[in-house]
Amino acid sequence: MNPTLKPSSSFSLYVHLPWCKVKCPYCDFNSHAANSIPAERYLSALLADLDRELPRIWGRRVQTIFIGGGTPSLFPPEIIDRLLSEIRARLRPLPGLEVTLEANPGAIEAASFRAFREAGVTRLSLGIQSFNDVFLQRLGRIHDAAAAHRAVELAIAAEFESYNLDLIFALPGQDLAAARSDLQTALDYAPPHLSLYQLTLEEGTPFASHPPANLPDNDQAADMENALRQQLQEAGLPRYEISAHALPGQRCQHNRNYWLYGDYLGIGAGAHGKITLPEGIWRSRKPSRPESYMADALSDADAIGDYKPVLVADRPFEFMLNALRLTSGFPMGLFPERTGLSWPMIQLQIRQAARDGLVEIKGETLRPTALGLNFYNDLCARFVP
Known about the structure:
Arc Repressor Mutant, subunit A, eight-stranded mixed β-sheet, 23% strand
């Protein structure tokens, strides 16, 4: 039996721009190194992709747009301006539309920050990763510490409504003192949002096949993370999600929609989407290779990419994999609302997780405990069908 569903009350758009100057050896995202970018052709493909998707989302109002990559800031501001104008012409934006653009601290992109702001980008996400030249080199980044500082300064000067700094810890040869120093450099800018990630060796990346020397072990990385999270808390940036910290009112609404199992449309090479229709929840994935994506999008095909239903048995795991990332948890009524399933379907797993100290219920809210966040993968595995 497939329960009747209704679209979620929240709806977002993700746009993937897949090119970088150089692909970092730790990155497993769908990104491709390129000396030149076919910006005009890719823009046409994105709009053709969006036009095909409109019948599935007709009448829905978009509350957030996230332009990710790759390095979207490599695209000329005029292309981003036209992209956002064409999106607004096709989708009705809600008041206060959040528009995020990912950027890297390269001199060419950073000089365009104000133009991106004028094009309608309200939130910039900067892939700083480190302010230390030694660690940037070990990560294979093409920018140096001076460029990182300059990028933050230009982002502040451009007066975005918000901005985010990405940092990575547990770097090759990094100890706790060096990690704390790196974070403090970021905090000295008083960022409204900061995302903190541990370096992981993702399958299929150069780092996975040839791990860098002197990586901190698991215990060292755990001690580092605990200290850094505490440092962020003391600086007034409380943790609201496994990897994200923000000032009050500065949380990323686009990502929050993912975590609360909201609906989102994905356009662009390799973009994923999730759309709820009365007959079920559907996931989409567009062709990963940019040339294949553009050829398909600009063809006469009725649809591009793959569309697959989320099986009823898989919905509890999908929901929990997202919602249990939030430190504040979620209202328990959201589970039946977003999955079409009844709460008793997961009651046994919840009871066992609570007994083991991984989750707690307060009123009508379920949230992970500190232990549950530390053992997030084990907690979510309890909901695998």
